[in-house]
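Hi everyone,

Forwarding the result from last night's run.
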Amino acid sequence: MIEARLVESVAKRTRLQDGPVSFHSVTTDSRKDSKAALFVPLSGERFNGHHYLDSAIASGAIAAIWQEQEPVPTSIPASFQLYFVDDPLHALQELAQLYRDEINPYVIGITGSNGKTTTKDIVFQLLGGEPFVHRTAGNLNNHIGVPLTLLSMSKECKFAVVEMGMNHAGEISFLSNLAKPDLAIVTNIGEAHIEHLGSRQGIASAKMEMLDGLKQDGFLVLDGDEPLLNGFQQEKTVSIGFNHQNKEAIATFQSKADGFTFSFLDEKDWYLPLLGEHNVKNAAYGIWIARQVGFAPETIKERLANVTITGMRLEKVAGPNGSTFINDAYNANPSSMKAAIETIKSLPEFKRRIVVLGDIYELGPDEEALHRSVVSAIDTPITNVVCVGEKGYWIYDEVKQQNGAIAVEHVENVSDVAETIRPLLNHDTVVLLKASRRLALEQVLSAVKGGA
């Protein structure tokens, strides 16, 4: 519930003297159900949100922030309030800051090349979930999404788990100053967006802009196994990882059929029901945070044992003929692709292990070498590799050169993958799907199911 007085404070003037007292939500999408909402029309090179005011009103909006130079439609209801501003996006961001300060939750900011969403989901659940814990919905993690995340907090919110993404330097700094985290997590440093940042060191520096908005007495939790983050240690830095030199080290972890057990914070027998060794570290971040804010180990253990995460992140799905698919198709960079391959190799119950790998984008001038580097993870017990797309050819070619014992094929399109793997699917088969979001590689799963 956003009070109108906050909106008035970011406006130059209003249309009516007696407008709404409060709003149930804030939206930038005129198509969504917007009962009693404040509509914020955003504009870009190819669109102007002001043109969709009628649609927003039909969806339930009762007021709008309005760019002062835009003409006001004559069709709007007499009772519809407008808040005139110079820049609706800036007003949205300023409003989010005001609301964040008014609710004043304990904010946990999360960034990193991989694992942001999974860590967000884990932290959210270990802290108890709704109604007192709020988290970023979907991938609303940029200069528009973070304000919308903050503005969707309830009045009862005690903890806000805010995911922050970026493509360029300076973006995390802006988001961190907007959200003002009490605690910041940097999950890891990979190669995502290296095209824009030049190197992994450039990526590390951009991710560590999280410190710019971190409260003076705030904690920084980071991947202690990443050498590029060693230079960012400060008094309240907590390094977490598998290396015993970390401030808080993960010990004696063991793979189970559908997850891991491990020791951490002097507690044994933590159970994580997720695939992927890297997710043990994501869970450790969440455990440390939950302990830091006062939850008992027994409570955290119970919640961890029942944790679930957003789909298409090492998601185990039943395929045709008793086969198993690991749908990790949401996105990819070389590090996350290698980690996914290692996960497939670690699963004990399959005789045939197929990895379907596709193009990775935003890798810059070294994209061929980075695609070929993925092959360092491809060895026994992987039995089949299917590579998709123009850039996927580099992986195919490298596998052929490096490991002649593995059956490898290259196809041009995602639509060709199903026919390639369908004859191989049975109860002894596991299939990994991994590529950049643009390929929508999850379509392979629906295609093989449709033709089963």
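The chain has three domains: 2-86, 104-304, 315-450.

Cheers,
N.
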